[in-house]
Amino acid sequence: MDSLEKIENRDFKLSDEEILELLNIENNSRDYYRLLYVSDSLSREKFKNRGYVFTQIGINAEPCSINCRFCSMGAEHFSLDAEWEKDFDTLRGEIARLGQQNYDELFLMTTADYPIERFLDISKKAKSLLKPHQRLVANIGDFDEPIAKKLKSAGLSAVYHINRMREGEDTMAQPADREKTIKAILNTGLDLYYCIEPIGPEHSYEEILKEIKRARDLEISVMAVMRRIPVPGTPLFDKGKIPARELAKIVAVTNIVVNPQRSMNVHEPAQMAMMAGVNQLYAEVGANPRDVKSDTEKGRGFTPDKAWEMLWEAGYKPADNFN
């Protein structure tokens, strides 16, 4: 039995060779659509057509010392149209505006150099503005277990933290530091949100396999796949991006192998990838590492309403008691 027949029979315990076989499926073949069907039907069974919209506010647009070669905020190639840091009054207004549209969770994102005590203070205040069903999530630099405990005490429910593609090569972050932070998150009882990213044309399926397996071993419940967006002015701009068809295939394989029990995301939102079982999308405000506009809501960022519309097109909806 080949890997495709295996997953069609709902056997998702795949070897490395079988996962690579799925990743190597030709995008213009009949097997490509068989793969997407398995992933999409798996999501329908798991998620019961429940969709999610997460929002994210980038609270500072400043040069970052981690200097990721794909990021518009890298210190050596800062490409945003302005530098700024939001105070809490500004954040309060943005949270209020986002609150006029439905969303499930609010992420607060900073550069790696942002002072942690300032982030903790802002997080406590932001948490008080959320509705009971809305969770607060951190997207920040590396930290240790004592800081993880402070994040939890400040009202955060989860942290988005990953080992990125070619970490330590295309970034100045070290895999050991990323793994230490992930361990601190899990040891503290915070939820870990994960993503295979940022995927570019130069990344091999073997590299992608390694990160899919990492997420599978971490038993991630909120999972994502993100393709790299070529940002003008960044060192990796000329590498380009993978097409939406390729992105959808990687989403499908990731969904099948990792089997997240709460949500599967594609980023940035891509209609074609919705056919691969995606039930969660992001709306973004403020600084965005994939945009040259420092206010990404005027550029690449989606609004919650726009994200819900895309989810509706794919047959997903909010919870019945969503308010």
From TrEMBL:
Q: What PROSITE patterns does the database record attribute to this sequence? A: RADICAL_SAM
The record's listing under SUPFAM superfamilies reads: Radical SAM enzymes
Instruction: Provide this UniProt record's keywords sorted from A to Z.
Output: Iron, Iron-sulfur, Metal-binding, S-adenosyl-L-methionine
Q: State its cofactor.
A: [4Fe-4S] cluster
Domain (Radical SAM core): residue spans on this chain? 47-268
One GO molecular-function entry: metal ion binding
Q: Which domain of life is it from?
A: Bacteria
InterPro entries in UniProt: Aldolase_TIM, rSAM, rSAM_sf
| Official protein name in the record | Radical SAM protein
Species the sequence originates in: Mariniphaga anaerophila
